[in-house]
Structure formats: C-alpha cells, structure tokens
Specification:
The chain is of the alpha/beta class. The protein has one domain (4-173): Rossmann fold (3-Layer(aba) Sandwich), CATH 3.40.50. Helices cover 21% and strands 34% of the residues. The protein has five helices and twelve strands. The chain has helices at 16-25, 43-51, 65-73, 110-114, 179-191, and strands spanning 4-6, 11-12, 33-37, 57-62, 81-85, 96-101, 116-129, 145-156, 159-171, 199-201, 211-214, 219-221. Helix 2 links the parallel strand 3 (33-37) and strand 4. The chain is globular, with a radius of gyration of 17 Å.
C-alpha cells in the first residue's frame, strides 16, 4: 500500500509491488555496492541493505533536505547504509555494482554510467512530462510527473547492453531532464519500437535506422 511521505505535497513511497520488482531486477547480492538516487525516507534503501548483506554497502542520495534527514534516521540500525543529502544527478562516488534512479529522467547521465563496474546494472525511468490536464488524479495538481519506461543498462567490457523492462509513472528527477530530451523521448514513444532497444551507445556516430533515441550524449540502439 502507498504510504504518505509528505501529505502536503502528495509525496508517497511509490507502488511497493513495482519498486520491489525493479529492485529484484537489479539482481542485488552479497557484497554489492548499491547507489539509490532519490531514496526518499530510506524505506527501499533499507530493503536493498538487506539484499547486499553480508559485505555489501548502500549509498542513498536524496536532494530534498527534509526527506534526507529522515532517511538518515530511519535505517540507522543498518551499519551498511550511508545517506547523503545531495543532487543525485551529479553525485559521484566509488564504483557501484548497481544504481537505481528512483525518479523520471530524460537523460542517462554520464556520471551514472561512469560509476558502473563491469557487470554493473543501472535502472532508470525514462519519462515524458504529462500536461496538467492529463495527470492522474492521485498525483495531484501542480506535481511534476511523467510516464514512460524503465530502462535497464548493463555495463560490459567496451559496451553497454540496454533494454526497456516495464511501464512507469513517476515524479521528475531534478537535474536529469531537458526540454530537448523530453521532445526526443516523446517522439520516440509516439513512433513506437522501444522494444527493439538492445544497447546504449556513447560513441559519436551519425543517426541511423538502428537508433531508436539519438540524444546528444547517448544513443539507444537496436544493435547488439
């Protein structure tokens, strides 16, 4: 069930069934280093802390100072959890085995890709902004929300595998959205074919038939 984090802003802990399914898709295991961007008050950060025991470490990053302070207190019993109040779109730490971005982006930030170890997994919602008249009632008026697809990226030697795994409706990720990126995603989803995506490219190349989303700093491609 949904639990209010800040009733005045209509913030909640997200749909638990979806969040746990996404965490499960990251294949967290003992000894993993896990980065949780947009950790809220730390509920799912604590779930991840259990999944990486023994020997693992979890870093939760939350841009909202008040939520971050609660997140520092809530999982206090977990010695393997560290919570930082910062902009997750710019946070840079030691390499991670898994990164979960818990807010909607239009950009796959280079800093996230750079922090993945070989074999590391990045799960990120790529979303397009919804106009106020099309937002579901449970989001509330004035909330910055979007819908799209969850993208799973896996770093391999010299390349990144990528595929979309599920639908998502979620609040925006501060620092990871641009108007140009929103337009590109909107056209991509309207055109269809996102199921064909199999890789994320970071090399410079001309847009071609295999490019589903050809963005300035990354490309989602059907080429394996």
């Amino acid at each position: 069930m949904l639990v209010a984090l800040d009733a005045n802003r209509l913030l909640n802990n997200g749909e638990p069934a979806s969040l746990l399914r996404w965490l499960d898709g990251l294949n967290l295991g003992a000894g993993d280093r896990f980065l949780h961007i947009g950790c809220g008050v730390g509920y799912y950060t604590a779930v991840a802390a259990e999944a990486v025991r023994p020997g693992g470490h979890v870093v939760g990053v939350e841009i909202d100072h008040h939520l971050a302070e609660r997140a520092k207190r809530n999982p206090a019993k977990y010695e393997n959890v560290e919570v930082i109040s910062a902009d997750g779109s710019e946070y840079e730490g030691e390499p991670f085995d898994a990164i979960f971005v818990n807010a909607g982006a239009t950009e796959v930030r280079p800093v996230w890709l750079d922090q993945l170890r070989i074999g590391g997994r990045l799960l990120i919602p790529l979303t397009v902004a919804l106009p106020p008249d099309l937002r579901p009632g449970w989001f509330g008026e004035g909330m910055d929300v979007g819908t799209g697809q969850m993208l799973l990226v896996v770093r391999r030697p010299g390349e990144y595998a990528a595929r979309f795994v599920s639908w998502v409706g979620i609040f925006h990720c501060v620092g990871a959205r641009t108007d140009g990126g929103n337009d590109l995603l909107t056209h991509g989803f309207q055109r269809g074919g996102h199921q064909s995506v199999r890789s994320l490219r970071r090399d410079r190349h001309d847009e071609g038939a295999a490019c589903w989303l050809h963005a300035p700093h990354f490309c989602l491609s059907s080429v394996v």
